[in-house]
Write a structure and sequence with these properties.
Length: 218
């Protein structure tokens, strides 16, 4: 995946940019003081991003929304003990991934199962050349991302789509920065291979669109 592809991938409607540190800290302080509007602003800014991040480890969006909702409840309860000098978004994401791990343990599920149903469909479709011609480019992006296995897909979603730096991604995923870089490298390679299989690769540069507002050049 080219640097241009990574830059344009970050323009997805989920909003791949964190609030400026000063603005985020001010909102957190106000929320800690009981300002519901400030907490609502944090939810509005990071809500869709959180669901998007969780979808890499889940098979459906409704499940991701449920986990995100529980994560926000935990964050609200623990907000008083949050140190404002830290970035809020990595803490939020780490909380959500902990909620998901708790659910896996409760139900005896394997962690980081990924979005298997969509990935399986994409793989089957990739073997039928005639149907490939009918695949909408937006669908190809979604399906190619779903084909990337965990834990590589989560690294791709956090860094390349949501724009996190390595340090914040590492805090969110509870791993070392070097691990994030390694996962990201493998995730990018897997994404490109899946995308090219879906849309065809004639050796030329291709431009596609994510949700009608994002161009991704490979």
């Amino acid at each position: 995946m080219s640097p241009q592809a990574i830059r344009t991938l970050r323009k997805t409607p989920v909003g791949g940019v964190a609030l400026p540190a000063a603005e985020e800290s001010a909102l957190v302080r106000r929320a800690q003081g009981g300002d519901r509007a400030a907490f609502g602003t944090l939810v509005e800014r990071y809500g869709a991003q959180l669901v998007f991040a969780l979808e890499g480890r889940m098979s459906d969006r409704d499940g991701a929304r449920d986990v995100a909702q529980e994560a926000w409840v935990r964050v609200a309860r623990g907000l008083g003990g949050f140190h404002v000098g830290r970035r809020f978004r990595p803490w939020l994401f780490a909380t959500a991934f902990n909620v998901l791990r708790d659910q896996h343990r409760k139900w005896g599920l394997q962690p980081e199962a990924g979005a298997a149903p969509m990935a399986t469909f994409a793989g089957e479709l990739g073997n039928r050349s005639e149907e490939l011609r009918a695949v909408d480019e937006q669908e190809a992006i979604t399906m190619a991302l779903a084909e990337v296995e965990e834990p590589f897909q989560s690294a791709l979603r956090l860094v390349d789509v949501l724009g996190m730096d390595y340090a914040d991604a590492a805090r969110s995923l509870d791993c070392a920065e070097g691990t994030v870089k390694s996962r990201l490298s493998r995730g990018r390679r897997a994404f490109r291979e899946a995308y090219e299989r879906l849309v065809g690769d004639g050796g030329e540069t291709k431009t596609t669109t994510v949700d009608s507002s994002t161009q991704v050049t490979l």
